[in-house]
Amino acid sequence: MRELSLNDLPKHSPWPGRLLGGDDWDDQPGHGGVGVEAYDEVYANLLAMARENPDADFRDIQQSANHYAEESPVAVSRAEDLFLVDVDEKQELQDEATVASLAGLLDGGETVVSLGCGWGYELGVLAEAYPDCEFVGGDPAESGVALGRELFGDHDRIRVGEFDFRDDEWTLLEEALEASESDDEEGKSDDVVLFTQGSLTALPSVRDVVTETLAKYADRVKAGVHLEHVRELHPEETLLGLLRRRYTDTRNYNDDLLASLQTAAGIEIATATYDVVGGNPLHPLSEIRWEPV
Ligand SMILES: C[S@@+](CC[C@H](N)C(=O)[O-])C[C@H]1O[C@@H](n2cnc3c(N)ncnc32)[C@H](O)[C@@H]1O
Questions:
Q1: Which atom of ligand 1 is nearest to the CA of 114?
Q2: Ligand 1 atom closest to Cα of residue 117
Q3: What are the sequence ranges of the domains in the chain?
Q4: How many Cα atoms are found within 13 Å in the side-chain-facing hemisphere of 239?
């Protein structure tokens, strides 16, 4: 892990050039963000790879995808510092952030429901780190759900299903809550943790999703944890912060996650930690934890 100066970032990332107008990025596909269809296409390729290599486990699939997408060294961020790492080390840093986001919250017996889990790589990482908990993940990309089922179908603590934030009812979460309530003598569901990682990002605004749908379930969950790209935390007074703001705006990603959680009924934000890891240094993941009130 070598330190990287912001000045040298353009040597290792196309984004400064794209954002500041040197590249003809405006006309390229994906300029305005990445939709479910694009994810579905990527996951379909990984599904084909998994079917051709039946001995490959979830880590093998992710590693192949990472090496196909990028060459070492790659730029990453942590707490507003930039580094160069190799592709596998970048994945380790991201896995550490995923596991750490739930540290201290899980005593054993909880069910973590990951909304927008892609094909479920994070479910595999978390299930290894928390062997006494169960993990349910959902995504609208059909190939992602199919790949998750292919890789984790035999796993007794992981389940993957269909899910879309835009639905009025979140059946995947509702089922986990009902299972928890039926196991509890008093009919309470205090062992379900609502989790998202890089999936709310995909929506241009999360206000209605958070204040109208997510908030409906808040008093039935133990906690909420979001490892997401939070535009509101990007400083306005640093060059890195301004580049990050421009990145979010150019890609049409949401800019209202923190404000939506702050105004949602029944939710109290416990912690918000900026830039826990940035696999793309201009688009880092921050960690938000909330509790029902
Ligand atoms: C950057 S990927 C993150 C996947 C996974 N959580 C991870 O960290 O690797 C974004 C995911 O959000 C999903 N997504 C996009 N729109 C969504 C929606 N309306 N509801 C739920 N998930 C959505 C995509 O299909 C994709 O799998």
A1: 6
A2: 6
A3: 2-292
A4: 8
For the domain made up of 2-292, give the CATH fold: Rossmann fold (3.40.50)
Residue 33 pLDDT class (50, 70, 90 cuts): low
Continuous segment of H or E residues that includes residue 261? helix 257-263
What is the CA(199)–ligand 1 centre distance, in A? Answer: 4
Q: Where are the beta strands (DSSP E) in the chain?
A: 2-4, 74-78, 81-85, 111-115, 134-139, 158-162, 192-197, 223-228, 267-277, 285-292
- Give the residue, by CA position, lying nearest to ligand 1 atom 26: 118
On whether the pTM is more than 0.70, the answer is: yes
Q: What confidence tens digit (pLDDT) does each residue in 89-132 have?
A: 999 999 999 999 999 999 999 999 999 999 999 999 999 999 99
CA torsion sign for 145, 150, 156, 158 is negative
| Other Cβ atoms closer than 10 A to 125 | 20
165 lines ligand 1 (CB under 6 A): yes
Virtual torsion, Cα 257, 263, 265, 270, nearest 10 deg: 70
Cα 44 to ligand 1 centroid, rounded to whole Å: 14
Using CA atoms, how far apart are residues 65 and 46, in angstroms rounded to an integer? 7
Rounded to the nearest angstrom, the distance between the alpha carbon of 116 and the centre of ligand 1 is 4
116 within ligand 1 shell (Cβ under 6 A): yes
Q: Which two tokens stand for residue 89?
A: 């080390």
What φ, ψ does residue 24 adopt, rounded to 5°? -85, 55
Q: Using one digit for the tens of pLDDT, what is the confidence trace for 152-188?
A: 999 999 999 999 999 999 999 999 999 998 887 887 7
Phi, psi angle pair for 286, to nearest 5°: -110, 160
Q: For residue 5, report the distance from its CA to the centre of ligand 1, in Å.
A: 31
Closest ligand 1 atom to the C-alpha of 227?
8
What's the confidence (pLDDT) of residue 183?
A: 83
**Residue range 209-215: average pLDDT?**
98
Cα(139) to ligand 1 centroid in Å equals 6
